[in-house]
Q: What sequence folds into this?
């Protein structure tokens, strides 16, 4: 860096060294650096572009920063003691598969890896070539890496300007920002918009400043939110050292796998994230000392606003903790478990809860006790986030519930419950057990592939085989990303008699193409949930992902969390089947209900915090462009503080509730609250909801009904 060269020259000058020994002046050093920076690419093109087999494959990086491209060889785990060592084996998928095109692409103090495609490759290429940064590889990823290097390292753009250069804020989204920030963003766009990437893309970037002793991960994605991502946080400040982890993946099961490995190695306590969300862009920044040890952290969003992580409490590893018998006698607590847990959870220790849940599993010696104890554990899994945990981290309590649900379902393998049959791929046997309506198939999903057509190896195909053998009731657990867990794979007609409880990390297309039946997911769903649903009942006690409900014709869906973009696009309320009824406790982001042709929707716009307190989201609807091109359908939002902005529903209009509308939504909103463990309190002939510690009266005045304006306006909203 020029600053380092200048500092070195000043130090040497202060020592009054002999000028005859200093063969280079500071000006000459600066010119040398500029020459290396500006001409190294064009002087070495012959090693890359014009050769069938490239000679050079790995570029050297800056200070305390190394990239290892292994091309399938042994990974050099004995890496230097630097804050950043990137080890990556992903080859390019959209261009020539060779070492030079493998990710990441690293420059002096930046590196970038890419999922997606850049459709305006030439525009980016022309921009970086203006500054002698011609790409040497034949993939669009390096062009993006060069631009990131240019703006984030060479020019040192502010954080918000880096995001705006690679993922510009446009249209109605600008209207949601304050005026000063809007002017700043537009000033960057006037310079960089023509060369900002276009198409579906997610960039994971590393930026390193060895002189300020800062290293950071920059998460960038396309402004239309076309690429999926899941971001998770784990934070604990109760031990000797402050610990914080942030992870990002395209699907949640990857994050869960990483958390389990971190817990196994003792780096964290518990294998569940404190916070999971879908980010539109953020920076995870870490500051380190002279010994390359991280000493502090900062998270900021794409506009430079700090992301404050709450104090999530003390964590606990159910897999590594030593259990001791508690002094208190808890005999009979399970008879009134809801009251007991709600009142006592704040005071109970992790050891107490560990003991109680383990006793539930060990005492499930009859089918009646098994069913009752599984019900208690499932209730705890679904609603633990709605109860004050005291000083304990809710994530660790969720992890404990998941752990003991797996343990109690493992007991079915012993064959002691006549109403249940157990199957796992570990048995290595072909499944040919005949089912009947009274028995339940308990299916351990461990080892099943995520997708395919062979029922011996693929979960969705196996469910079809089980259905043909007569099975109608299912409990599926230990899922790890398997796709299309749905009644859709069962036969060619209606499946109204199917009932399914699902535990674990489901993959995409959960509940998609349903032709009837009831499915309950005790956890988070992912992208394309309820896609093309015809009819049936789908209950999700967690978040869901992108493009939920696309092309649906009917069905009832409850989601006890947030959803992302493009939910129920191109859906219709088909009068020949079950009405389309959607109940979401949280919020959606962008493009909700595009080209919608019917259906009734409720968005609560709420979440539970780390103390189990019900709180409002930033807005009932988090983004813009709802109901673009829609002709029918009704969106109802809980908005007691009038947080909805008119820029969010430019393609819709607020209208009053008719008596019929309110009678219908009154029932559905109450059902949403009941399914979310949210009580309504009676006072002075009214009913009240406790939100953020304040009592909000439950009546039609705190809800907004939005319907489409109609017409073609909205199709150009992209």
A:
């Amino acid at each position: 860096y020029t600053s380092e060269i200048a500092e070195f020259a000043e130090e040497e000058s202060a020592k009054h060294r002999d000028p005859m020994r200093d063969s280079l002046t500071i000006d000459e050093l600066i010119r040398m650096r500029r020459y290396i920076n500006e001409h190294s690419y064009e002087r070495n093109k012959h090693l890359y572009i014009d050769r069938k087999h490239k000679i050079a494959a790995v570029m050297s990086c800056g200070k305390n920063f190394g990239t290892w491209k292994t091309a399938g060889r042994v990974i050099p785990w004995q890496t230097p003691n630097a804050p950043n060592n990137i080890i990556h084996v992903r080859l390019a998928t959209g261009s020539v598969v060779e070492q030079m095109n493998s990710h990441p692409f690293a420059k002096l103090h930046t590196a970038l890896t890419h999922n997606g495609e850049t459709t305006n490759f030439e525009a980016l290429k022309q921009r970086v070539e203006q500054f002698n940064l011609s790409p040497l590889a034949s993939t669009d990823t390096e062009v993006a890496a060069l631009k990131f290097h240019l703006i984030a390292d060479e020019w040192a753009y502010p954080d918000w300007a880096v995001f705006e250069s690679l993922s510009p804020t446009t249209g109605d989204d600008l209207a949601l920002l304050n005026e000063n920030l809007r002017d700043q963003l537009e000033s960057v766009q006037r310079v960089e918009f023509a060369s900002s990437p276009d198409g579906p893309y997610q960039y994971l970037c590393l930026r390193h400043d060895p002189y300020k002793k800062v290293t950071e991960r920059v998460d960038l994605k396309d402004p239309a939110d076309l690429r999926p991502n899941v971001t998770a946080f784990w934070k604990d400040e109760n031990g000797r050292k402050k610990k914080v982890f942030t992870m990002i993946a395209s699907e949640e099961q990857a994050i869960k796998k990483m958390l389990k490995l971190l817990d196994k190695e003792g780096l964290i306590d518990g294998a569940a994230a404190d916070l999971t969300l879908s980010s539109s862009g953020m920076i995870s920044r870490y500051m380190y000392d002279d010994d390359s040890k991280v000493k502090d952290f900062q998270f900021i969003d794409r506009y430079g606003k700090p992301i404050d992580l709450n104090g999530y409490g003390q964590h606990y590893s159910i897999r590594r903790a030593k259990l001791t018998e508690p002094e208190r006698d808890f005999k009979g607590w399970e008879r009134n478990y809801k009251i007991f847990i709600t009142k006592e959870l704040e005071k109970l220790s992790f050891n107490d809860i560990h003991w109680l849940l383990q006793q539930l599993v060990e005492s499930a010696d009859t089918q009646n006790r098994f069913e009752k104890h599984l019900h208690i554990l499932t209730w705890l899994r679904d609603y633990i986030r709605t109860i004050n945990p005291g000083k304990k981290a809710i994530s660790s309590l969720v992890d404990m519930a998941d752990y003991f649900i797996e343990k109690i379902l493992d007991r079915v393998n012993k064959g002691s419950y006549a109403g249940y049959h157990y199957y796992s791929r570990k048995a290595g046997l072909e499944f040919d057990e005949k089912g009947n309506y009274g028995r339940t198939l308990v299916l351990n999903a461990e080892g099943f592939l995520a997708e395919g057509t062979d029922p011996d190896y693929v979960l969705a195909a196996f469910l079809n085989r089980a259905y043909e053998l007569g099975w109608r009731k299912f409990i599926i657990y230990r899922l790890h990303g398997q796709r299309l867990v749905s009644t859709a794979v069962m036969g060619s007609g209606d499946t109204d008699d199917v009932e399914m409880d699902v535990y674990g990390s489901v993959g995409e297309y959960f509940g998609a193409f349903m032709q009837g039946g009831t499915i309950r997911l005790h956890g988070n769903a992912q992208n394309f949930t309820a896609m093309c649903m015809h009819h049936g009942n789908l209950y999700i006690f967690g978040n869901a992902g992108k493009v939920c409900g696309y092309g649906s014709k009917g069905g009832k869906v409850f989601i006890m969390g947030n959803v992302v973009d493009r939910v129920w696009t191109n859906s219709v309320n088909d009068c020949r089947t079950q009405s389309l009824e959607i109940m979401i406790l949280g919020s959606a982001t962008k493009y909700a209900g595009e080209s919608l042709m019917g259906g009734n929707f409720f968005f609560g716009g709420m979440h539970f915090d780390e103390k189990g307190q019900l709180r409002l989201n930033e807005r009932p609807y988090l983004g813009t462009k709802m109901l673009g091109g829609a002709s029918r359908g009704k969106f109802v939002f809980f908005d007691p503080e009038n947080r909805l902005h008119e820029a969010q529903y430019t393609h819709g209009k607020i209208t009053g509730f008719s008596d019929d509308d309110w009678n219908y939504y009154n029932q559905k909103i109450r059902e949403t609250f009941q399914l979310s463990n949210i009580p309504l309190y009676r006072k002075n002939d009214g009913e009240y909801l406790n939100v953020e510690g304040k009592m909000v009266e439950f009546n039609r005045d705190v809800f907004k009904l939005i319907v489409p304006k109609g017409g073609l306006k909205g199709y150009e909203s992209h």
About this structure: Residues 1-43 form one domain. Confidence is low (pLDDT under 50) at residues 55-60. DSSP finds 14 helices and 28 strands in the chain. The two ends are 41 Å apart (CA to CA).
